[in-house]
Amino acid sequence: MSMQSEITTSSYAEAQDAADPLAPLRDEFVGAESDLVYFDGNSLGRPLRVTGDRLRDFVAQAWGGRLIRGWDEGWYDLPLTVGDEIGRICLGAAPGQTTVGDSTTVLLYKMVRAAVQARPGRGEIVIDSDNFPTDRYIVQGIADELGLTVRWIEVERHGGVSIADVEAVVGPQTAVVLLSQVAYRSGYLADTPAITEVVQDAGAVVIWDVCHSVGSVPIQLDEWGVDIAIGCTYKYLNGGPGAPAFAYVAERHQAAMSQPIQGWMGHADPFLMGPSYEPSGGMRRFLSGTPAVIGMLAMQDMLELIDRAGMEAVRAKSIALTAYSVDLADAMLAEHGVVLATPRDPEQRGGHVTLNHPKMREVVASLWLRDVIPDYRDPGGLRVGLSPLSTSYAEVLAGMTAIRDALSSA
Ligand SMILES: *Cc1c(COP(=O)(O)O)cnc(C)c1O
């Protein structure tokens, strides 16, 4: 049997699962026992079984029993304590630099404004044309609001932003550069430390959006000298729909940066309820209103699981899963006209793979009816999102086989 066809057999996929040191962790997720194929953990991660207990206990004991005393017993500091855990486990960030709060969209607005304000006299914000819609819209809105110019980096939809792309646009007018570490469409993984250096050499502030990388790609914000990062907690951090986002601000910037949504929770002394706003020291100044305590419960379970597995092991499995789906696409889908729209080099790839075909919109719709759940992104892209701790090799094979079957009857 040739290698090409061997990988398409269930015995091959089963052997991969049997040899996978992280395979037992999959049973800790709700739904692990079902035949459903989930290829969207990069969009909304599966819940852990222990999260059900955590939510029920929270209602019965913390909320129901401690009532308003809960604020003094941990809730008030939860954005900072959970932030530190995200920083330690997933971001390579020392304590005191990460906080949780707001949606990614709102937090991004706050952080871009803070970064722009830290570079007075500079008139440009740089972003790529294929960044996530929210990121592009927020940057355009702030530019309109403050009379700045957006400098667009044009990128290929199957690729992403290179070092040379950034070198070509930054200069003495650049205030802020906002980029995604992993491109939401193509899965392209940017050279984060090298681009950070290019931006800082131009005197600008870099903001990394790590929504599509946190929890699947190792990140070393302190080591790389990153200025600001923001990210989602409901994708690979499995915080549940609408779970709040996080922001990292390097300690050296905190005292000089201020954000525009001045609420009482970011005040130096919230319970003074004084006449005017005075920002807190440290990361608390980036908070605005009452933190989403319930929204921070589920992510704590996933953080604990990632901590147990270790980010390096998570990345190793992520690469193996994306490589397997690329190999299966070559073996089973290329003959149906499917084109890989993700880098082949694993060093340039995050945790998902995009497959292009003119019929993918219809294919995805028919797969959802059969409990095979990828997602669709224009133009013609089916995204195979592979959450490393909750996806098995057998699941990848079943899903890719279903895509082939749907294509041959499309
Ligand atoms: C998922 C994602 C968002 C989502 O923002 P929300 O405010 O949570 O809806 C923003 N930016 C990027 C890059 C994303 O991947």
Task: Give a brief rundown of this model.
This protein is α/β, with parallel strands linked by helices. It contains 14 helices and 13 strands.
Can you put this structure into words, describing what you see?
This protein is an alpha/beta fold and 410 residues long. The protein has two domains: 3-49 and 310-409, Aspartate Aminotransferase, domain 1, CATH 3.90.1150; 74-306, Aspartate Aminotransferase, domain 2 (3-Layer(aba) Sandwich), CATH 3.40.640. The protein has 14 helices and 13 strands. It has helices at residues 3-6, 10-19, 49-66, 78-91, 104-117, 133-146, 163-169, 192-201, 221-224, 251-254, 297-309, 311-333, 360-369, 393-408; strands at 37-38, 98-100, 124-128, 149-153, 174-180, 205-209, 228-231, 246-249, 339-340, 352-356, 372-373, 375-377, 381-385. The protein has a seven-stranded mixed sheet with strand order 2-8-7-6-5-3-4, with helices on both faces. Strands 9-10-13-12 form a four-stranded antiparallel sheet, covered by helices on one side. β5 (174-180), α8 (192-201) and β6 (205-209) form a beta-alpha-beta unit. The longest helix has 23 residues, at 311-333. It is globular. The model has no long low-confidence stretch (mean pLDDT 97). The site of pyridoxal-5'-phosphate has 12 residues, from α5 and α6.
